Amino acid sequence: MGKLINRPKVEVLKRIIQQEEQGQYLEVIFHVPDNTEQINVKMEVNSEGNAANIIDLGVKDPFRIRGWSGGARTEFFISKSKATPGYLQGEMPVGEWAVLLGSYRVAPVGCEVTVTVEYTPLTSRWLKGDLHVHSVHSDGTYTLRENAAIAEATGLDFLGLTDHNASSQNYAYPRDTAIHFIPGMELTTNKGHLNLFGVDDPVKDFRITNMEELHSCLRETREKGAYISLNHPHCRNTGWEWEWEFDYDWVEVWNGPWRADNQDAVDWWQEQLVKGRRLVAVGGSDTHRPNPHVKHGMPTTWVYGNECTTPGILEAIHKGHVVLSYAPNGPFIELNCGTSMVGDVCSEREQEEVTMKVSHTQYGDVVKIYSNKGIEQELLIEEGQDMLEASWDIASRSFYRVEVWRYFHEAKSRLMAALSNPIYFR
Ligand SMILES: [Zn+2]
Ligand SMILES: [Zn+2]
Fold it and tell me: Which ligand is in closest contact with the Cα of 193?
């Protein structure tokens, strides 16, 4: 799946502590290189059978103390988006850091401390998440911690917080889970819904009763740095009924279980692409409460980024580096042309072919290839075929995009199982 392995670099440092140093805070210097995603630090005290040594542990970066665990831990990690309790996540500045050893008790013979530092470089990979989830902060029944636990069990990396016209969720979500929460709000009007992503307090006043108020609300959220997604535009109950000329970034073409209003959204999106518009398609489950059909990660939005942080994820989505699949283990689509991928604009002069790889397929799946000329090809997955590779000429095409359709016995019909964003050509 194009997933690159993060291969950490390991450094082992030793420090002998004499009894005279008891009561001091000693520093073991290490250097964090450029483009580091995470450091893992481990301390071992060789007391040679002498239990009298008590060495506390902490760390400082070039500017400040980044964490302290006293005698409670012998290891910790810090990354941009997460850290061991007691340690601060955040920027990973390049330069001189130090492991802090608090020599609380040192035996007369002293002791040797071995510090192991592991550096994991930033590496682009496919992150998976659900951009549209509700909670008790609006009309959902899940707490934020319950949402995190379910998403984690589902194998997701991130969740978008999109409670209706509320922002309290953005101040209340747990930081100590494996799930990265993207702050947001579903701006909910009587004539359509928009997800606002990336800021804690997207709008001061959600009440929109005319286009002028809509424009002014979106201006406010833009100034704060939010990305705007047009949600379920063709939903039969809560579709878009305002004018279509307004400021937004992405369109949610896949909301919850596959159904006719999602197909209408994809058809509309295809028309926009044919007109030459480069509009990013996203998905979201719109989960509110336990439901056999509406579940976290159904669909899953896959995002190719190098860090699981709010700006990292949102900037990657904005580049169109996005693929949707019906579930985290659903089929997966890759499209490449030279060094370009989905969302990119590839210069026709450099490359003549686009290559496709569809993985996690199963017998009976149908792979549909679309371009600005409409549907170009339909390929059937044969028995025992869990992968499909193909390539086509890009002459006179402005984009290619791919869909995978699968027969679902539960639904007794063939439904969308994966959908890629387009790869574009000049
Ligand atoms: Zn909605
Ligand atoms: Zn919603």
Answer: 1
